[in-house]
Write a structure and sequence with these properties.
This protein is an alpha/beta fold and about 350 residues long. Helices cover about 35% and strands about 20% of the residues. The protein is built from 12 helices and 14 strands. Strands 9, 10, 11, 12, 13 and 14 form a 6-stranded mixed β-sheet that branches. The chain has a 5-stranded parallel β-sheet with strand order 6-5-4-7-8. The N terminus is likely disordered.
């Protein structure tokens, strides 16, 4: 995770089919284990063990769910549609358009509890009568974007469920969201999920092939703010971990912040790491190439001069549908980039 929002997160702890046997079989079909989920026949009790090891026990499968936007987008890609009633996190841009982090969520049909870090409207949340809150977890045990100062009040209304999305390879949170979606009633054997997974696997192989054909490229994942340049750690971000497994040669910063996600550099030192290709944070809160153009330190970077900069979302939608296009774009870039 990079940029100023991650700095805030560091300071606050870096802000989770009938019959148990039948459901377990369905969940296993989507990629590993039952995730600790159980549901009784006829709409009986529902349980799920999250990635903090916390067991969520409900009287029935939840029908009113509020999620962090990324979590909701992942669940929707796996077939959960009607149960999500509210979201929080980057949902809409200033111009009113849907933020890419919301994925395929029908944002205009959902109650937005908060649209930025630190925003979480308790009154709106309570009015939705939530039965479960689902969120990403980058640093255990904190649920991303759940304000620490109101966390107790939030969890008093509905239990929070965390899916780990930090310091593990990309396929792990994807599998966990698939398991959770199956536990919530989605069909993990649907044609759409199968097609999405096949596309993801094909895209992953295309990255391997591109690296093999055009090896030796040094890649730096980074983010820019007005005052600082952030060099991200490929040992922490789930996507970067996976990219390394596919053979991409990512640079590891040597002076990481407390949580280990990135190194903060002044713009005068933005050239500390020699990179042939830059993966630049594309999220709304990070500065984009057009915003950085006025900074000589940015313009002078070899990769910028060579126009070898690719957009990078440190918070991908953790689904096969959400990540396949990312891998496809990375493969195309690696295949055509030049060593500087």
């Amino acid at each position: 995770m990079s940029n100023s929002r991650a700095s805030q997160l560091s300071r606050r702890g870096f802000m989770a089919a009938g019959g148990a046997a039948a459901l377990g079989a369905l969940i296993s079909a989507c990629g590993g284990g039952d995730g600790g989920a159980k549901a009784a026949a006829g709409g009986g009790a529902w349980t799920f063990s999250d990635d903090r090891g916390k067991k969520i026990d409900l009287k029935a499968r939840p029908r009113r769910i509020v999620t962090y936007v990324g979590a909701g987008a992942a669940l929707r890609d796996f077939g959960i549609t009607d149960q999500i009633v509210g979201i929080y996190g980057p949902a809409k841009r200033q111009d009113g358009s849907v933020d890419p982090q919301a994925g395929s969520l029908p944002v205009d049909e959902l109650e937005i509890i908060g649209n930025a870090y630190g925003e979480f409207n308790l009154e709106k949340y309570a009015a939705l009568r939530p039965e479960l809150l689902i969120d990403n977890m980058f640093v255990e045990p904190n649920l991303f974007y759940v304000p620490a100062e109101s966390a107790d009040k939030i969890y008093a209304l509905a239990p929070g469920l965390a899916i780990s999305t930090g310091a593990i390879t990309l396929t792990k949170p994807i599998e966990r969201y698939a398991q959770l979606a199956a536990a919530l009633g989605a069909d993990p054997r649907s044609a759409k999920v199968a097609q999405d997974k096949a596309r993801f696997e094909k895209a992953a192989e295309s990255v391997r092939a591109a690296v093999k054909a055009n090896g030796g490229l040094k890649v730096l994942a980074c983010s820019g703010s007005a005052d600082l340049f952030y060099a991200s750690n490929p040992g922490k971000n789930t996507d970067l971990i996976y990219f390394k497994e596919l053979g991409v040669e990512l640079i590891t910063p040597d002076k990481l912040n407390k949580d280990g996600y990135f190194e903060e550099l002044s713009w005068e030192n933005a050239d500390k790491y020699e990179a042939d290709l830059l993966m630049l944070d594309s999220r709304t809160q990070a500065l984009q190439p057009k915003d950085l153009a006025s900074k000589p330190a940015w313009r002078d970077l070899p990769a910028v001069k060579a126009n070898q900069v690719i957009g990078w979302n440190p918070e991908p939608v953790f689904s096969y549908a959400g990540c396949a296009p990312i891998l496809e774009a990375l493969a195309k870039t690696v295949q055509t980039a030049k060593k500087l």
